[in-house]
């Protein structure tokens, strides 16, 4: 019985090897060129798909249309800021929604609640664990601007500053804002 099982296993392994070799040979697939084009299209669409998902989640979590607004994340020597403004200066509805959202963000972040960034990004952004732990050492202040608003973030604690910068850099990358990732003085 063992000899039969061993023979059967050997035959299956050889068939599997031949099958794998055929699968790996592009010439064995009459649609290889089309598959390669589809794979390339999927690879190039992946970042756009991620960003589209981010915008959809952000609209739900933040309460305003992400296409009608622009985000900016600024790093400074004492912390930084989260800034959102309308793309059309006459868009009063979005201005109000931005102000409401950023006031809530300042309040929630100050109490260690980062549920909105989690909902927006589908993951916990970099730095959040330390921002929660060090919340007593960080100040979040909402400021209204002509086109929306900002949350000014300030700390004198080096560990908290590192966490603030990590959080803002994550936002810059995921929102694809192109903002500088080094602190600038304001």
Question: What does this protein structure show overall?
Answer:
- This protein has 186 residues and is of the alpha+beta class.
- The chain has a domain at 58-175.
- It is 56% helix and 17% strand.
- It contains six helices and four strands, in the order ααββαααββα.
- It has helices spanning 2-24, 32-62, 92-110, 115-121, 128-133, 158-175; strands at 69-76, 79-86, 138-145, 148-155.
- A four-stranded antiparallel sheet has the order 1-2-4-3, with helices on one face.
- Helix 2 (32-62) runs antiparallel to helix 4.
- It is globular and about 40 Å long.
- It starts with a helix and ends in an 11-residue tail after the last helix.
- The model is unreliable at 2-9, 15-24 and 38-46 (pLDDT under 50).
Got a strand count?
4
Q: Give start-end ranges of low-pLDDT stretches.
A: 2-9, 15-24, 38-46
Give me the side-by-side strand order of the main sheet.
1-2-4-3
Radius of gyration: 25 Å
- So what's the oligomer here? single chain
Count of helical segments?
Answer: 6
- Sheet with the most strands? 4 strands, antiparallel
Calculate the terminal CA-CA distance, rounded to whole Å.
Answer: 81 Å
Indicate the topology:
Layout: H1 2-24, H2 32-62, E1 69-76, E2 79-86, H3 92-110, H4 115-121, H5 128-133, E3 138-145, E4 148-155, H6 158-175
Antiparallel strand pairs: 1-2, 2-4, 3-4
Helix pairs in contact: 2-4
């Amino acid at each position: 019985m063992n000899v039969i099982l061993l023979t059967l296993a050997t035959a299956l392994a050889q068939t599997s090897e031949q099958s794998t070799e055929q699968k790996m040979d592009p010439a064995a697939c009459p649609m290889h060129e089309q598959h390669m084009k589809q794979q390339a299209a999927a690879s190039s669409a992946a970042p756009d798909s991620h960003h589209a998902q981010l915008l959809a989640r952000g609209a739900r979590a933040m309460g305003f249309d992400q296409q009608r607004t622009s985000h900016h994340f600024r790093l400074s020597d004492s912390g930084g800021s989260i800034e959102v403004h309308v793309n059309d200066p006459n868009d009063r509805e979005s201005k109000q929604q931005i102000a409401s959202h950023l006031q809530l963000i300042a309040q929630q972040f100050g109490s260690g609640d980062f549920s909105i960034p989690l909902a927006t990004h589908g993951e916990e952004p970099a730095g959040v664990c330390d921002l929660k732990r060090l919340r007593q050492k960080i100040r979040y202040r909402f400021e209204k601007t002509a086109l929306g608003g900002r949350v000014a973030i300030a700390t004198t604690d080096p560990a908290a500053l590192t966490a603030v910068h990590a959080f803002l850099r994550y936002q810059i990358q995921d929102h694809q804002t192109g903002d500088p990732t080094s602190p600038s003085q304001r």
